[in-house]
Design goal:
Blueprint: H1 2-10, H2 15-39, H3 43-53, E1 64-66, E2 70-72, H4 87-100, E3 109-114, E4 117-123, H5 124-127, H6 139-151, E5 157-162, H7 176-194, E6 202-206, H8 219-225, E7 227-233
């Protein structure tokens, strides 16, 4: 009787639960590892997975939300750079946000991203009268807004003047070269002298009619070519 009692105390009938629990844990670990491998086309992610499989690094499963949605395994994430904007991308985002927050400017300013940097393009008729390089009185409100954007970043700025191909030959402007260059200079001077921005960040160029964005064959296309570009230079940045 004593032997039978001892035997019944040693076996409870629930021993299978321990094996089942271990199996479920291993399966969960396997599928999480598989998910990371297939979700992340990234050498660093593969490194994390291999270290976990080899028993290296943290032995605790820790789920970190990466970029809002992808779970990672391990302690500190080895993945760097993903989800982080470059300086150029951040500058472009700030310029687009600036325009979104100033809807009154959306018909007179466009934002463009190209290989040299971020371009804030202004129509010339907003800034100048025809054949003139003197800023119009009502253009100052527009430039005041743009100066807020330029003051919030530390990039160098190149202001570019452009004209259409209609010849000009006056005492002040023997050609479109002089007209476009003087317009660019006056915009720079406004930012520096009136708004107090750092003059070492600014330069000006005049391109005349030689960098058109449309054929000079209609009034509308000529209007597109008459513009001032404020280039936020990012070409030397990551």
């Amino acid at each position: 009787m004593a032997r039978e009692k001892k035997k019944s105390e040693g076996l409870t009938g629930n021993e299978w639960m321990s094996t089942y629990s271990d199996t479920v844990t291993l399966l969960m670990t396997f599928f999480v590892l598989l998910f990371v491998i297939t979700s992340q086309n990234n050498e660093s992610a593969s490194k994390v997975v291999l270290e976990a499989l080899n028993g290296e690094g943290s032995s605790i499963l820790q789920f970190d939300l990466y970029d809002g949605e992808v779970p990672l395994i391990g302690g500190e994430s080895d993945i760097e750079g993903e989800g982080v904007l470059t300086k150029k991308e951040q500058t472009y985002k700030e310029a687009k946000d600036f325009l979104s927050n100033n809807q009154e400017l959306k018909d007179i300013i466009t934002i463009e991203d190209n290989e040299r940097g971020v371009i804030v393009e202004l129509k010339d008729n907003i800034l100048f009268e025809s054949a003139s390089s003197q800023l119009k009185a009502d253009s100052r409100a527009v430039l005041d807004k743009v100066s807020e954007l330029l003051a919030s970043i530390d990039n160098d700025i190149l202001v570019e003047g452009h004209t259409d191909n209609v010849p000009i030959n006056t005492y002040d402007f023997p050609s479109n070269w002089e007209l476009s260059a003087d317009r660019a200079v006056n915009v720079v001077r406004y930012f520096v002298e009136e708004k107090g921005l750092d003059p070492t960040r600014f330069s000006a160029s005049g391109y005349g009619e030689y960098h058109p964005v449309a054929p000079n064959d209609t009034y509308e296309n000529k209007a597109k070519n008459r513009r001032v570009n404020i280039l936020i230079i990012t070409s030397q940045e990551g």
